[in-house]
């Protein structure tokens, strides 16, 4: 039995690698762009607040600059998605990536409030285009049986290069400070790190300039909004579990730094290493998601991963043993995120091709509202009244409700394909 199991794993791994190798030129160029983009984003996330603080601004203005991109996504996400559904994805991806690079450059060079706000808004527009369009575009540059694999590999590259970018972002300010003989907390070394961010982001533009739009992407007649009661109901079913999960994530995920600091008195350096290793474990787990989708089907894979994360989430909420909590953090983080590529593919395959960008934009908007807006506000109030335990328990309730609704809505949408019957595909009606 042991050797049969090893043989099955090796056969699956060979098939997995073969599927990656067979990905088309456009898909491989997209993966290259992802590597540059997420390396840039990781450095930016680590450096930006420190840089603005070094310019003499305080937390209120720093919070405003960080909140503006989420506000922009709420305002322009749906129009961008609808326009891309009519005119094609690639132009928006190119423009969004270019605007993001220009935003990083502008933020690095600006010093006064008005330019900083302007370039933060520009970054929000660029980010909205990239976030809304990325996943629907990925589905047009590969065959249906390759979709889960492409999204999984893309996610793994994002996590891995994000980890490397975080490490690089931690090294760059000290290196520049030594070169220029200034303090590491001065604006100059931090500005230098942001300029490296802009350079990485600019490199992400070039793969999109080489990629060609799929000829079937442009359509004479486009109806990006849901038409009729049945389609509206389908959109509601697809988005309601997403909204619950995003709200639950906002209640907990954005407070993990504070949680480890206040409950266990960890220093920022230790928290940074913990988070970086969490990205690597999630990347490794994500590679397994196509295998689960092949064996269980997309719906059951999503539900299994989300429900399996709940015991670890509760351990996080109720335990005061650091070792157990760190282990629970890794397992919860991996399980909740590994099925994301499977979920995205399933959602977008339920709607017409010209509606995919619209659905994606609505999903991103709900995620921004729940994770970046309502969730943290509610969580902050609960934490002041009852602490982290009650707030994290609310997260668990939201995750369970989201998983149950997703299963109830779509349990009959597919049946798992027998093992060995095709590469990573599952059977069902995708619309």
Provide the fold topology.
Blueprint: H1 2-22, H2 25-54, H3 59-87, H4 90-109, H5 113-140, H6 147-180, H7 187-203, H8 205-210, H9 228-252, H10 256-264, H11 268-286, H12 289-296, H13 298-318, H14 322-338, H15 340-349, H16 356-386, H17 388-410, E1 414-415, E2 427-428
Antiparallel strand pairs: 1-2
What can you see in these coordinates?
- There is one protein chain.
- The C terminus is likely disordered.
- The relative contact order is 0.14.
- Strands 1-2 form a two-stranded antiparallel sheet.
- By secondary structure, it is mainly alpha-helical.
- Helix 4 runs antiparallel to helix 7 and helix 13 runs antiparallel to helix 14.
- The protein folds into two domains: 200 residues, Growth Hormone, Chain: A; 199 residues, MFS general substrate transporter like domains (Growth Hormone, Chain: A, Up-down Bundle), CATH 1.20.1250.20.
- It contains 17 helices and two strands.
Pick out its properties.
2 domains; globular; two-stranded antiparallel ribbon; 431 residues; 2 strands; Growth Hormone, Chain: A
Write out the strand line-up for the largest beta sheet, numbering strands in chain order.
1-2
Strand content: under 5%
* Count of helical regions: 17
For the largest beta-sheet, the strand count, sense and barrel status come to: 2 strands, antiparallel
Structural class, from secondary structure content?
mainly alpha
First CA to last CA: what distance? 40 Å
CATH superfamily of the largest domain: MFS general substrate transporter like domains
CATH architecture title of the largest domain: Up-down Bundle
Helix coverage percent of residues? over 70%
């Amino acid at each position: 039995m042991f050797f049969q199991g090893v043989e099955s794993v090796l056969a699956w791994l060979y098939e997995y690698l073969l599927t990656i190798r067979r990905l088309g030129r456009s898909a491989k160029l997209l993966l290259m762009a992802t590597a540059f983009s997420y390396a840039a984003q990781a450095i930016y996330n680590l450096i930006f607040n420190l840089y603005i603080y070094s310019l003499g601004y305080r937390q209120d203005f720093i919070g405003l600059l960080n909140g503006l991109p989420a506000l922009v996504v709420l305002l322009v996400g749906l129009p961008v998605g609808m326009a891309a559904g009519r005119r094609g994805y690639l132009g928006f991806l190119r423009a969004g990536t270019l605007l993001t690079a220009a935003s990083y450059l502008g933020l690095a060079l600006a010093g006064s409030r008005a330019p900083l706000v302007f370039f933060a808004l520009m970054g929000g527009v660029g980010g909205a285009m990239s976030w809304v369009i990325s996943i629907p575009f990925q589905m047009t540059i590969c065959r249906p049986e390759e979709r889960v694999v492409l999204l999984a590999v893309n996610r793994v590259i994002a996590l891995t290069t994000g980890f490397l970018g975080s490490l690089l972002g931690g090294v760059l300010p000290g290196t520049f400070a030594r070169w220029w003989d200034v303090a590491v907390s001065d604006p100059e070394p931090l500005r230098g790190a942001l300029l490296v961010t802009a350079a990485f982001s600019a490199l992400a533009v070039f793969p999109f300039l080489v990629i060609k739009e799929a000829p079937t992407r442009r359509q004479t007649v486009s109806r990006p909004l849901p038409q009729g009661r049945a389609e509206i109901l389908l959109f509601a079913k697809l988005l309601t579990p997403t909204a619950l999960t995003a709200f639950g994530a906002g209640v907990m995920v954005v407070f993990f730094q504070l949680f480890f600091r206040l409950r266990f008195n960890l220093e920022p350096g230790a928290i940074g290493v913990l988070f970086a290793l969490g990205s690597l474990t999630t990347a490794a787990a994500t590679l397994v998601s196509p295998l689960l989708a092949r064996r269980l089907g997309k719906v059951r894979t999503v539900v299994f991963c989300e429900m399996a994360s709940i015991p670890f989430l509760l351990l996080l909420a109720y335990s005061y043993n650091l070792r157990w909590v760190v282990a629970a953090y890794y397992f919860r983080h991996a399980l909740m995120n590994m099925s994301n590529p499977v979920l995205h593919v399933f959602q977008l395959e339920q709607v017409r091709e010209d509606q995919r960008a619209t659905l994606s934009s609505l999903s991103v908007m709900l995620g921004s509202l729940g994770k970046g807006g309502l969730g943290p506000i509610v969580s902050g109030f609960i934490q002041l009244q009852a602490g982290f335990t009650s707030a994290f328990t609310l997260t668990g309730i939201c995750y369970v409700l989201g998983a149950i609704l997703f299963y109830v809505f779509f349990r009959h949408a597919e049946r798992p394909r027998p093992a060995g019957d095709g590469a990573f595909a599952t059977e069902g009606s995708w619309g």
